[in-house]
């Protein structure tokens, strides 16, 4: 009787995030390991936040924290927990010299003035869904600093613009926890294996379908949307597209990335510039979608081409399958809106 194949006895478990990062480090001629370590620090914080989310109901860390963040939004307890965890991981990692968070007004200095990178982040997106066990996420964006090494990070380090990102990504805390990121060489997705405590590569070279049949939008604001947005949504309904809106940006985005679709957060009469933050929501997700073959638009221009002027600047967001974004642009032209500049 022949001996069993060794792969039958112990099949490979896959490629870990650490091994993947090490292999890809050669894509950066200037890199000396700091960016790789920074991504590991983010992954470590994600594991800790994942643990906190999974036991939130047992630890009394759901519900309101009792304060508002700089955006004027009611903070949830898990917002505060996630913010602390990511800041602590980035400080201890030593590679980031400064952090910009949705939960804080000003730059957070890590004390690591020799760090080569700055990080902008939304520590926990989808706060309104926390208490009802709906998928939520973390969004992050990484820049190579432009201020002198050894000095404090400056405003200019964070206001370089979306095209200057060296890496961006998000973590989805859902039925499985997934880390999706890009360093400008395609999009990779990793799934967390709880028993081993590791992220394993589950999807490499992710590409969004050019056409989809799903639109994600809060139609409760229909009467406040511009006519060209209503024109496009009407077109979606006439084509019998499916409306899917979770109300958690990362979750809606993730579904459309893999299945095809478009996410819309238009301007309204009350919020002429939209509500999503450019630096730590718009830029990183637009960076990823372009790497995956999709498009991201903010009104009349590509998201990544908007010139930032403020840490917490807001912008509309229309992001997803390229042909669906093109259809939106056609509706803009039909309603007399200047043709959007989108790649």
Task: Report on this structure.
The protein has 343 residues and is of the alpha+beta class. It has 2 domains: 17-204, Fructose-1,6-Bisphosphatase, Chain A, domain 1; 214-334, D-Maltodextrin-Binding Protein, domain 2. It contains 10 helices and 18 strands. The chain has helices at 6-9, 17-24, 34-54, 56-59, 77-93, 155-158, 227-238, 249-259, 278-291, 322-334; strands at residues 64-68, 74-76, 96-101, 108-109, 117-125, 136-144, 165-173, 177-182, 187-193, 198-204, 214-216, 242-243, 262-265, 276-277, 295-298, 301-302, 314-315, 317-320. The strands form 4 sheets. Strands 4-3-5-6-7-8-9-10 form an 8-stranded mixed sheet, sandwiched between helices. A 6-stranded mixed sheet has the order 12-11-13-18-15-16, with helices on both faces. α3 (34-54) packs antiparallel against α5 (77-93) and α7 (227-238) crosses α10. It is globular, with a radius of gyration of 20 Å. 46% of the residues are buried.
Give the secondary structure arrangement, pairings included.
Blueprint: H1 6-9, H2 17-24, H3 34-54, H4 56-59, E1 64-68, E2 74-76, H5 77-93, E3 96-101, E4 108-109, E5 117-125, E6 136-144, H6 155-158, E7 165-173, E8 177-182, E9 187-193, E10 198-204, E11 214-216, H7 227-238, E12 242-243, H8 249-259, E13 262-265, E14 276-277, H9 278-291, E15 295-298, E16 301-302, E17 314-315, E18 317-320, H10 322-334
Parallel strand pairs: 3-5, 11-12, 11-13
Antiparallel strand pairs: 1-2, 3-4, 5-6, 6-7, 7-8, 8-9, 9-10, 13-18, 14-17, 15-16, 15-18
Helix pairs in contact: 3-5, 7-10
């Amino acid at each position: 009787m022949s001996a069993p194949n060794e792969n039958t006895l112990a099949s490979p478990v896959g490629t870990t995030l650490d091994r993947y990062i090490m292999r890809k480090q050669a894509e950066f001629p200037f890199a000396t390991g700091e960016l790789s370590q920074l991504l590991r620090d983010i992954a470590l914080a994600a594991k800790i936040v994942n643990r906190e989310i999974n036991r939130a109901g047992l630890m009394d860390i759901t519900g309101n924290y009792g304060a508002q963040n700089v955006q004027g939004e009611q903070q949830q307890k898990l917002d505060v927990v996630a913010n602390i965890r990511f800041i602590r991981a980035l400080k201890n990692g030593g590679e980031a010299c400064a952090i910009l968070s949705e939960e804080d007004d000003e730059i957070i200095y890590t004390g690591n003035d020799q760090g080569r990178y700055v990080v902008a982040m939304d520590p926990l997106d989808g706060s309104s869904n926390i208490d009802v066990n709906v998928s939520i996420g973390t969004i992050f964006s990484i820049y190579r600093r432009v201020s002198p090494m050894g000095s404090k990070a400056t405003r200019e380090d964070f206001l370089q613009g979306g095209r200057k990102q060296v890496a961006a990504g998000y973590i989805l805390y859902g039925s499985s926890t997934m880390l999706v990121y890009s360093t400008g060489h395609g999009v990779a997705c990793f799934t967390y294996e709880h028993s081993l405590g590791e992220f394993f590569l589950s999807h490499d070279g992710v590409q969004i379908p050019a056409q989809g049949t799903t639109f994600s939008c809060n139609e409760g604001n229909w009467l406040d949307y511009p006519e060209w947005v209503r024109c496009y949504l009407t077109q979606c309904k006439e084509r019998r597209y499916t409306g899917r809106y979770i109300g958690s940006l990362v979750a809606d985005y993730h579904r459309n990335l893999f299945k095809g679709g478009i996410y819309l957060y238009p301007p309204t009469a009350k919020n002429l510039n939209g509500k999503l933050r450019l630096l730590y929501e718009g830029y990183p997700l637009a960076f990823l979608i372009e790497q995956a073959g999709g498009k991201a638009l903010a009104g009349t221009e590509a998201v990544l081409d908007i010139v930032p002027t403020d840490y917490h600047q807001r912008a509309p967001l229309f992001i997803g399958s390229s042909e669906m974004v093109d259809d939106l642009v056609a509706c803009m032209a039909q309603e007399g809106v200047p043709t959007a500049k989108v790649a």
